[in-house]
Amino acid sequence: MQSLPWKTIAMAAALLLQLSFLMEIVESSPSDKITELPGQPHVSFNQYSGYVTVDEKKQRALFYYFVEAEIDPVSKPLVIWLNGGPGCSSLGVGAFSENGPFRPSGDVLVKNEYSWNKEANMLYLETPIGVGFSYSADSSSYMSVDDKITARDNLVFLARWFIKFPQYKHRELFITGESYAGHYIPQLAELMIKFNKKEELFNLKGIALGNPVLDFATDFNSRAEYFWSHGLISDSTYKVFTTACNYSRYVGEYYRGSVSPMCSRVMSQVSRETSRFVDKYDVTLDVCIPSVLSQSKIISPQQVTVSLDVCVEDETVNYLNRKDVQKALHARLIGLNKWTVCSNILDYDMLNVEIPTISVVGLIIKAGIPVLVYSGDQDSVIPLIGSRSLVHKLSKELGLNTTTPYRVWFEGKQVGGWTQVYGNILSFATVRGASHEAPFSQPERSLVLFKSFLQSRPLPEIF
């Protein structure tokens, strides 16, 4: 099984041992409190944002945005949200486009009625260093970043964040996210579990992975079947896309800088038939041609100029580049002229995408931590076909019997999706009509899914 080496864990542990010496230099939470974001409606909950230094020597600091629960935050769990890419912002995508309390609309913010802070205290982390407002004074920190570095930094971030917010130190903790967070989250959870064997610091209660990259070949190669079954490609193209050059082979060649003539021909044919005017992250959604690129662009190198959110990211980019907004967020741009959704200075080792993390998910389940894998069923980037088969295969490997047979679930008086549960600890669910970013495209259904996940309750069987 692929897992983080003890050297990485030891390095993280060594950094955490410094915590006792940092008590006096870490800012207290009141200094990070947001008085009010420009243009926001009145709300009763508290918001905080700022930096946590994860490396004093190179002045490496991760930026966070924290929103307390709308009602009775003391009784609600702490949930970390991570977006993927690798290299895309949890602030801009997660908080301001998906499940945060506000969404930009022109010069103002409008209330998101299906914000996840209705059910939890939400912590959005811009990771790794070089993403969004997260920065390093040493530009070499942006070079050769990989999964191990990211996991270690995220662990140190959270331990030091608890110094700012000690009231959350022993709170029930969940980690959620989507896309390449299918790498970030399991590896962070694994570090937490191993660190807890030395010192009980993280009260981890579950992880939820949305349209996640878990196994490179399975996830990527299910794209061909998804395209064909949804009528986006012809029979003949489906055949060459599964025999002459499958998608994982193409991506592997692309990131090694040498695309073969065969793969080039196959991908040209696939792209021609699917059309750049169909959003690959939501095949039913209209596209916004001038919009910025989304987190999925990073792992879909052949896609250009289309985005999954029909221009909402443009609103976010404009809002987060306002000086008054950055001041309210206690944010600053270091070595950059502009905040971007996905980093253009981060040099991430993209070959890490080929390292399976589904085995790490297995280790987490063996440690007794519940796992939910959910899929927006309109996403062709990381289709439900691959995720469902990976979860089923893992259940067999772990000897988990089906405890909830495959069935429909409801939100309101509509079908919310389908679900299956194994051993009451490993769950799979689809979100009907949802894109790669399910909380954006189906906010009501995603909130029902999120609430059930936190409460360890079955998804609604009736309406």
From TrEMBL:
It is found in: Secreted. GO terms for cellular component: extracellular region; vacuole. SUPFAM superfamilies: alpha/beta-Hydrolases. GO terms for molecular function: serine-type carboxypeptidase activity. The keyword Chaperone does not apply. It comes from the Eukaryota. GO terms for biological process: proteolysis. The keyword rRNA-binding does not apply. It is an enzyme of class 3 (hydrolase). Its EC number is 3.4.16.-. Its main location: secreted. PROSITE patterns: CARBOXYPEPT_SER_HIS, CARBOXYPEPT_SER_SER. InterPro entries: AB_hydrolase_fold (IPR029058), Peptidase_S10 (IPR001563), Ser_caboxypep_his_AS (IPR033124), Ser_caboxypep_ser_AS (IPR018202). Keywords: Carboxypeptidase, Disulfide bond, Glycoprotein, Hydrolase, Protease, Secreted, Signal. Residues 1-28 form the signal peptide. PANTHER family: CARBOXYPEPTIDASE, SERINE PROTEASE FAMILY S10 SERINE CARBOXYPEPTIDASE. Probable carboxypeptidase. Belongs to the peptidase S10 family. This is Carboxypeptidase.
